[in-house]
Amino acid sequence: MPSTYNEIAGKRLSRMEALSDGVFAIAMTILVFDLKDPVSNVQLSDGALLQSLQQLGPVLLTYLLSFMTLGIFWTGQSTQFDYLFQYTRRLTWISLFFLLFVSLIPFTTAILSHHIHNRISILLYWLHLAVLGVLILLHWSVAKKSACVQAREEELRAVNRAINKRVFTAQALYALGASLCFIDTYLSIVFIIAVQLNYALGLFPRLLH
Known about the structure:
mainly alpha; 10 helices; about 75% helix
């Protein structure tokens, strides 16, 4: 029988799945709030309107970047949940800290879109991605050690290799993308988006998966 509060707390996996879905959905929705008509209540010619819409370029680019970031990490977390049959207090708090950084994505996205020519904004965003990567990998590692994963031994080995390869390869590519900011910040962002498109669409599965 459990003898301490820590042994009985945080065991509802379904509760964490519901909370995670909610936090991701809210973070994805907040991203769009930065997209605003640059010239509202003003009658413009077609040329002037197109010129004013160009101001939204950095915001649209970073919106795409972060929406895909959230989609990729939501998919990664969901994949782990698929193999868990029970939960622990430790896993609950790892997930809560993971969601803390998920909810901060709109903040670092706003910094990046408003200061898109600054290397610091790129490096801050990359650091954010790195923390999310560490936490999602830690979540899987603790789940295995806590005997919360339900899979046959052979399947578990294959799943473990796939998850580890996915996280380490993605983080290496994100780091490479961030380093490109020393050449050009737009090049850095476009490279990271290209990496995300690959993971979303499976364009080069043998090379990057």
